[in-house]
Design brief:
10 helices; two-stranded antiparallel sheet; 224 residues; 5 strands; mainly alpha
Length: 224
């Protein structure tokens, strides 16, 4: 493996005794190519109070790559749904987010947890972007989060609806994932019954997705 650095070769050889001084790479001009990471690959701000505790009060700023089930800190009611946010989002105004965190931990015990979560998130993201099924609830939650977190409305790189999307849809994504994980491992011939069950899990009176809705497509054409 060849590595280009700005550190002089004598310094490198002292630090790395096995470095071959005759390697042709030593005579190669230094070069660097920078590629911006996709948003999903970028770190986000960790819970400030957790960071302060773990650093013994030295700092409250840290960056992490959280797993999906670590989106919310239920102890301190903070979350960081998007790397473009300069501060965490306070979630006290939406206690259902902490409840969803605990439900997500229970979901992890299911053998199909990862598949169910990935499918559910794709479905709820599509619903959110196309303003389907849960629009009023999500708009209300977004409004509460923006009222408690003015920086959501002053981050110029994206709209609050996009910056907070993963957080806004989180409770319903967890609920849907748990419902999908519990479905039998076979094609779903009783689609209407399954939709009624999922509607109940989501707190809806009924759920009537169109033929090309991702949930209906999953239920009618997909095996677990």
């Amino acid at each position: 493996m060849r590595v280009s650095t700005r550190i002089p070769l004598p310094h490198l050889t002292r630090s790395l005794p096995r470095l071959d001084p005759n390697d042709d790479a030593h005579h190669t001009a230094a070069a660097a190519r920078w590629k911006r990471l996709e948003a999903a690959q970028q770190p986000v701000r960790a819970c400030t109070l957790c960071t302060r505790h773990r650093s013994h009060g030295i700092t409250d700023t840290a960056w992490v790559h959280p797993a999906p089930h670590r989106l919310v800190c239920p102890r301190h009611h903070q979350a960081a749904p998007d790397p473009r946010l300069a501060a965490t989002v306070r979630t006290q105004a939406s206690p259902e987010l902490a409840a969803a965190h605990h439900a997500h931990q229970r979901l992890l015990q299911h053998p199909r947890a990862i598949t169910a979560w990935t499918t559910a998130r794709a479905i709820t993201t599509r619903w959110y972007d196309h303003q389907q099924h849960l629009t009023h609830r999500w708009h209300t939650r977004l409004t509460r989060l923006c009222a408690a977190n003015p920086h959501l409305t002053t981050t110029g790189s994206a709209s609050p609806a996009l910056l907070a999307r993963d957080l806004v849809i989180y409770p319903e994504t967890v609920a849907l994932a748990r419902a999908l994980a519990a479905l039998p491992n076979r094609p779903h011939r009783d689609t209407d019954d399954t939709l009624n069950l999922i509607a109940h899990r989501l707190g809806l009176t009924r759920l009537t997705p169109s033929a090309n809705d991702p949930l209906r497509v999953f239920l009618t054409h997909t095996r677990h």
